Amino acid sequence: MTAINLSGRVALVTGGSRGIGRAIAVGLAEAGADVAINYVVHETAATGALSAVKGAGRRGIAIRADVSDSAAVDDMVAEVVSVLGPVDILVNNAGIAVPRSIEETTEADFMRTLQVNLTSSFLCAQAVLPGMRQRQWGRLIFISSGAAYSGGRVGVHYSASKGGMEGLARGYAKRLVEEGITANCVAPIQVATDMSPPDVTPKGGLPMGRKGDVDEVAIAAVMLAGNGYMTGQTIHVNGGVYFN
Fold first, then answer.
1. Could you report the per-residue pLDDT of 1-25, keeping only the tens digit for each?
2. Would you say 172 and 139 are in contact if contact means Cβ atoms under 8 Å apart?
3. What are the pLDDT digits (tens) for 164-194?
4. Biggest CA-to-CA distance, the chain
5. Which one is catalytic: 158, 172, 229, 242?
6. Residue 64 contacts by C-beta under 8 Å, 6 or more apart in sequence?
């Protein structure tokens, strides 16, 4: 079995400055891809992630863009194409998770979460798909969440947005299966990030006695980037929190 080789490919990772997104960006670079790192706020972190990509011997670029805005997405993709080349691998990782009880959840909370987590994934996919279809090669990777299956702890707005990502991925998978383009999800849960600190665990503990590491999620995403036969699927990275 040969190692995954993404040489000559260009990847775009949304929300790629920190946490899971950063780990995926670096993992793709280590597999040979040139990587564009999208961010909104954390410029210093994005610069650090870009340095890690270049440290792996690959080209890279960090781009500030609000991926919930269609015009910003179009401009971002155009810049990636101009600097690195057409996007072959899209990782939809950008998102927000604002805890709310049912009673606290407002229409504004719900709509904003869908816009940032779900609509952004649609906008980015639509922006890169024409090039992928022209080249008859592409990978759409959606970082959803175990909350789409377990109900999660953040709130109904968050679970709905992540469940929507899963449906979106399968919709693309069904329609693009004959064009060399795959669409899959990675559903992490209880992974140590800024959103879920390693020292904060749910009541009852965790089956493995620890939270997952961002690199363990990145391994799954890189595998999907290198696999041309797997589509319409979800890889669950959850340490046995639930089985699917």
1. 678 999 999 999 999 999 999 999 9
2. no
3. 999 999 999 999 999 999 999 999 999 988 7
4. 52
5. 158
6. 38, 39, 40, 43, 46
What are the boundaries of each domain within the chain? Answer: 10-237
| DSSP code per residue over 124-159 | HHHHHHHHHHHHT-EEEEEE--THHHH--SS-HHHH
Residue type, 130: P
Which one is the CATH code of 10-237: 3.40.50.2300, 1.10.630.10, 3.30.1360.40, 3.40.50.720?
3.40.50.720
Contact by Cβ (8 Å): 190, 200: no
Q: Over the chain, what is the mean pLDDT?
A: 95
Q: Can you tell me the distance from the alpha carbon of 161 to that of 155, in angstroms, rounded to the nearest whole number?
A: 10
Which 3-state string (H, E, C) describes 50-61? HHHHHHCCCCEE
Catalytic, 158? Answer: yes
- Which parts of the chain sit beneath pLDDT 70? 1, 195-203
